[in-house]
Amino acid sequence: MKHLFLILISLFAVSFSASAKDGDALKSLPVQDGGRIKPYDSFSREMLEIVYGKSKFEGRAATEIVLTWMLSPQAWHDKKIFEVRNHEVLTALNLPKEQRYFSGEELFAGDRFTLLRQELQSKRETKEKLNPYFQALQRLENQYFVFQEIASGRMLKVLPPKEGDTWLSIADLEPAFQEKFMNITKSFVINIGNVAKGESTEQSAKDLDKSVLDFQDAARAQNPALYNVDSRIKAEVHYNNFHPFRWAYIFYFLAFIGLLLVWTLRKESLMKGVWVLMALGFILHTYGFGLRMYIMERAPVSNMYETVVWVSWGTIVFAAILELIYKFRLILVAGTLVAAFGLVIADFAPAVLDPSLQPLEPVLRSNYWLTIHVMTITISYAAFFLAFGLGDIGLYYYLRGEQKHQEQIKGIVTGIYRAIQIGVAFLAPGIILGGIWADYSWGRFWGWDPKETWALIALLGYLAVLHARYAGMLKHFGMVVTSIVAFSLVIMAWYGVNFVLGAGLHSYGFGAGGVEYVSAFVAAHILLVIYVSVIRSGKRKLSS
Amino acid sequence: MNKASAPQKNLIKTLNKPLASLKLAVFIIISLAVITAVGTFVEAKYDAYAAKKLVYDTWYMYAIMGLLVINLTAVMLDRWPWKKRHASFVLAHIGIIILLAGAYITAHHGLDGSMRVGIGESNNLVQVPETDLTVYTSFDGDRYSKTLEQEVDFFKKPPSSEKPFVVPTYEGQIKIVDYKKYVLPSRKVVPGEEGKAGAGVRFQLQNPNVNVVEWLVQKKPNALASQNFGPAQIFLGSAPIKGRGKNEIFLTPDKEGLQYVVFQKDSEKPLKKGFVKEGDVFDPGFKMALSFRVLRYLPAALEEWDLKDSDAPTPLTTSAIKIIFENKEHWVLLNDMVKLFTNNSVYLLTYGNRRIDIGFPIKLHKFEVARYQGTMRAAAYQSLVEVPKAGEHLISMNEPLKHNGLTIYQASFQEEQGQPVASIFSINHDPGRFLKYLGSLVISLGIVLLMWFKHLDFKVGKSRKHDGDNA
């Protein structure tokens, strides 16, 4: 146990010292973008993600890449840096469909792109909903825009104005500030030159830091009130570097492995270690959550990414509570597995689950009801997610043999039943709280909005399960099956309303993405359920 | 217990049994889930109004809700006399009934509409989704009296040429023969009947920076029609003697063409006068070197609509009805009107959303949009309004004004050329509110207790025998 705490402490230490490394001051340069002040580190990551779909290019950090767009745009002319995934768009551009990354030359040089832009513009004028093709076109246009604006120096806004609140971009700086910024770019070029040549960067990195700090001092003097963002910027750079949620799922996964060892080797003594690993993951998870909260000054449950993180957190809490009550290891197995899965998905699908920190839509602003209602509803999804994980393990036991594993199946069904009860106990009041919020804010308790309606449908689904169980319509196998099938309703309420239906008051431009993966996930589970049912009925016939 | 000693109660219980069955409950719950799920897909394809009309506000939805209430009542009757351990179950179920009762009262006696108030203006009329058909009749073309007002629901019951909706009038009848849910309208101007229709002119204003082509049509002869273009305002109608100190062009219809009078910003006296025919150009004499060209001139002109069908609604579509009067066809858009003439009388037919007087005016003093720093993205917006008795009040997102039993909520705003021009409020009155809150509270209490009482716990492997109710 002591060892693990030491690991944790050194982890924190490493991450903090990493942010204080020479040459890293540039990361903390405040930039105004997307309606807030963020560190250049976040800005460059987000921009590279828009253009390239990833936060690194050929192993080089976004902070480097994005600055070189501005310093030598012509050098990027034929670099394959624009990601295009939509086949229809590629066909329209006469480009090969197998390819995913293209150079600006290939995409934007001909007049095809201009024609497509006009097509998009006329579609916008009719104000119809954009289908995936037009959404992809829109993304392409945005990629083009972002690259051009950064290259021209108009996008990177680094200097607070003397009056007003729109910051000045590099292109608009006065000569004195131009010069100061030139110093940054000069020492930046020397530094990456040294890196490329494999020479010592000790001095050049220090020079770079000095030029950045020099610029910052001058910028602060221009308007101290607007430039007073240091601690949040530092926290955000630390958040970006440290990546707390990645550590959290690593620990959850280790705990999961530990549980497998406890199970296969039958070594109860390992359980302590499992709890410690889980606790470490949980602390880091909570820490990351707290960091986001500190940076944005609000509860981080306003988009898909944030709710996935929050739900994973909830599954760990519920799994731990149920485990403490029932002392049944499989609940923890399901909990750690599902939480790790959720966090991994959040980490690896930035196109679908946007991890960037965004300001809120007007309707969501400054309202504690929002937080309470969203958190209550999504925490119920955590319980259903746990039931779903248990259902998967249940299927596994049915495949292994129902007779042999009666004990485990009973336990799993207890877990499922309890988890569903917990879920219902949160979801029903959550929906009611949503109604109270809607009434308080809009004078309307219930409006059949798709998001609230699907939350209700999910509730009805689980209520049907509980009542059917009570009526004896569902036996053990029925509970295992419904815990998996009913979770599709939660997926629809949680993800589908925004990404499949794309309608209603609750879908704030979340866009589309990943529909094929999510559908495949749901379909695969339903197929699995059918497969196991067929096998099971076959076995029953044989034995009878 | 006293089951054996009360045969009458037993009979009720026997009759009640099928209604109280859990299987029926499961069926109802699943039906509700399926119907509402369909509703969300209808909303995604069309809009909230269509979903309401086609799914949520239908006989089958009401039937399933009714069945739910019966089932909930029956199952509670079945458990009579209630014991302490029934508390959670009874509360959760009674709560649902109370909640539904509240929802029913709101649906039938509540108000849910929207109000647009221009900046500096005031309004006391709430527009609701229900549609009305109104006919006014006049025998002298001047004084109108309302001769018909009727609620119509063409969305659910569209008229057709086989089954038209007939409006009797003093002479003949107006037949409504078609209804389109979603059309994209564009205005067109056609020659009208002389003496009854006003004049129309299609003109072009042009200089190196400006190029505007527009129609101006008088609603009736000698009426004044106008259009503002920023640098100048164009009028069709008789010119005043003095200008108002603005850049204005007055065009007065004449037999073969138009008399024009130009006023300029810094003078009351006319700057220029003249006469133009179709095809002519003149220079109004403003400093910005504009030329004014008459593209088309109709001494009697009528505005009509060209309609393009659309499969689904967009912010630009509206609905429209087709009417036939004296063998002539007209399309009337929602919230628009049409004038119909015979030799002796004039009829004015309006088709539009009902407007309800809330009994007091809402005056909009100021409207402000706060944007996220350095962007055009709205962060918040708010209206400074004044209402009688309550005085001035700031309405912002999620901070509505509650006044006279109404909730006045900041819903959105209208913009023209990047500047807000009007605020849109949503106005609600919810008479079922108390019951909804009470129901919610009771349900929540029930759920909390559910965790307490053991009898609903599922015990692995134990035989489940509860009062014999799940036979």
TrEMBL record, chain A:
Residues 302-501 form the Cytochrome c assembly protein domain. It is found in: Membrane. It is a multi-pass membrane protein. The keyword Transferase does not apply. Pfam families: Cytochrom_C_asm. It comes from the Bacteria. Its main location: membrane. The chain crosses the membrane at residues 247-265, 274-295, 307-325, 330-352, 372-399, 419-438, 453-470, 477-497, 517-535. Keywords: Cytochrome c-type biogenesis, Membrane, Signal, Transmembrane, Transmembrane helix. Residues 1-20 form the signal peptide. The keyword Membrane applies. InterPro entries: Cyt_c_assembly, Cyt_c_biogenesis_CcsA/CcmC. PANTHER family: CYTOCHROME B_B6 PROTEIN-RELATED, HEME EXPORTER PROTEIN C. This is Cytochrome c biogenesis protein CcsA. It comes from Bdellovibrio reynosensis. The gene is ccsA.
Automatic annotation (TrEMBL), chain B:
The keyword Nuclease does not apply. It is found in: Membrane. Its main location: membrane. The keyword Membrane applies. Keywords: Cytochrome c-type biogenesis, Membrane, Transmembrane, Transmembrane helix. The chain crosses the membrane at residues 20-39, 59-77, 89-107, 434-453. Residues 349-417 form the ResB-like domain. It is a multi-pass membrane protein. PANTHER family: CYTOCHROME C BIOGENESIS PROTEIN CCS1, CHLOROPLASTIC (PTHR31566:SF0). This is Cytochrome c biogenesis protein ResB. It comes from Bdellovibrio reynosensis. The lineage of its organism: Bacteria, Pseudomonadati, Bdellovibrionota, Bdellovibrionia, Bdellovibrionales.
